[in-house]
């Protein structure tokens, strides 16, 4: 493969193929155009070229993820127009926003409107979404509602991670990365046959780093890395028509987190960084956003595990059966020093114990020119969670039972969900150039919720796992309780026309109805009038989104591909999210709309220069409960722009690649109020790398710098301003400049 064309394999977003496979196809087909055709996705539950699918998609294969240096699940959004990562409370959990549709709730009982899938399995818990990216076949980012063929709450879109599968030949790699803050990351995989019918693949990842935040109070470092992940897969092919894949996975995280920059805000909604906070009698105005004084630094302990069985049976040439059975578990304990000061005032915590079972059964087939898929989906989700705070100054009651105990809040809640749905979609060519697509999904949700707010005494309040266990709590008083069940029926749908103008141009027009189930709030603080422990405050209705979209996908001469999309969103009962202090509340907006467009180009400008550019504009507006006041939703920037430039230098043996990329994010706010305490002005992040790859593709050495200009930017803020609250604002900053070097060795039979 001509090394000058490798950018075509990277910037043009090939899915699911190794560089060796791309090289073979390009050589046999005679040029870069065949590389374009190699771009494949499973966005419609079948393999297609991304340019033949009438959906706004960004697909990234494993080689591109490697080239861009992505090593965790949230980074993958950087090169997709209109997509951004949301970090509700720092390193502890993540969610994705698409076209301004996002969820910024840091409690785990609220599902995201942008669904995450791994190997076609829905990831329901945001706290389980911060997994490491390694040994991936590809990532697919679908923008816009995807409720017809995907099983859960994909009103904004979805992100689908597909791992590399076992091979019946020796295949694998080993990679070591050393970087800033004593980063040490080791990952690798090995795959081979066990018998003629059975193959296995083992993949591991271990990531360690010292913290990048200085705790001046103790001298320790916060926001370190300590993550371990393992995945074992078995592929069984007893006949040419039957394939069974078993996937077992485990991951854990144990980090010192909960870091926030304390900014004095003694007047409501106003930052007063140079004025002493009289509530805490403390001020942090040294100008270093990566340092603070934390008397009780927090931690995040997370453990996830699961198993998936995927069976595919080609019954005949026109009919295929697919069964996907999954069991997933998430356990988490999180606590933070919320006042971000040396004063023992308020330590917020979350715990999660979520058990998930899902089953999808679908048939795929054809009748003449008609392609169809139909099936059913079942999700059973049991959540036993809690939130609260250790806060003797606010609650009192410490020292009553034992010396050194502290008062606080403990708010347990049990939530169950049974979701059953049936779906079908057809694709029918009306003419050689015109194709009709139609789909429906009927969804039945049964949900229960049991929640209480309690004043308690923590016998041992030290920040360690088990602080919220039953034998460490003494109930002082139940301050409020709420219990409810609900049954909701929702219908998602799709109607679309694709017009294949010629072999290199596709246009489409679509209507998609996306739905998201109703749910419940779990506030931290005791409620006061006019809010109460009733349906009006703690329950919200299902959301419905009608999305209208037109798009164009085309080749641009010999340079590459240009994809354009424009959309209009019309919501009913939009679930608008708001942060009030440390409480997160979801309400239904009586009216909400959004409109925008996206442009994406991938290709080669010259023989050595490759280019990827993306731009997205979104104009979103939602009415508040009064039906009169309108506001822009949280974490919904008006503009997102991204770009990547890659220059390759052929050598006598191998090649050098020099790469730079950037992401621009427009102004955002973190709460619905128009206050400077919850604002982040527009910023741009730059990354750069240089790599050397040998001719045989077996060795690669890469040096990288992320956040090249050391930009300081806020990813989350909590307004606790005013002397009647904490007199401060919490600001959580993204990572500082980070440099490193990685060495990778690949092998194949």
What does this structure look like?
- With 749 residues, the chain is mainly beta.
- 5% of the residues lie in helices and 57% in strands.
- The protein has six helices and 44 strands.
- A hairpin with a 4-residue loop joins strand 23 and strand 24.
- The longest helix has 11 residues.
Sequence stretches where pLDDT stays below 50 over 5 or more residues:
1-39
What Rg, in angstroms, do the CA atoms define?
26 Å
Write down the overall geometry. Answer: globular
How many beta-strand segments?
Answer: 44
By DSSP (H or I, 4+ residues per run), the number of helices equals 6
Percentage beta strand:
over 45%
Straight-line distance between termini: 19 Å
- Main sheet record: 22 strands, antiparallel, barrel
Mean pLDDT: 87
What is the helix fraction of residues, given as a range? under 10%
Q: Could you give a quick summary of the protein structure above?
A:
The protein has 749 residues and is mainly beta. It contains six helices and 44 strands.
Index terms:
749 residues, mainly beta, 22-stranded antiparallel β-barrel, 6 helices, 44 strands, 57% strand, globular, disordered N terminus
Chart the SSEs and their pairings.
Blueprint: H1 6-11, H2 19-29, H3 33-37, E1 40-41, E2 48-49, E3 56-61, H4 62-68, E4 83-86, E5 95-98, E6 114-118, E7 121-123, E8 136-143, E9 157-163, E10 171-179, E11 183-193, E12 198-209, E13 213-215, E14 221-222, E15 225-239, E16 242-255, E17 261-264, E18 291-292, E19 299-316, E20 319-337, E21 347-367, E22 370-390, H5 392-395, E23 406-429, E24 434-458, E25 473-502, E26 505-516, E27 519-520, H6 535-538, E28 539-540, E29 543-556, E30 560-572, E31 574-580, E32 583-589, E33 592-604, E34 609-623, E35 630-631, E36 639-650, E37 655-665, E38 668-669, E39 679-680, E40 683-693, E41 699-706, E42 714-720, E43 728-733, E44 738-748
Parallel strand pairs: 6-9, 13-18
Antiparallel strand pairs: 1-2, 3-8, 4-5, 6-7, 8-9, 10-11, 10-44, 11-12, 12-15, 13-14, 15-16, 16-19, 17-43, 19-20, 20-21, 21-22, 22-23, 23-24, 24-25, 25-26, 26-29, 27-28, 29-30, 30-33, 31-32, 33-34, 34-35, 34-36, 36-37, 37-40, 38-39, 40-41, 41-44, 42-43
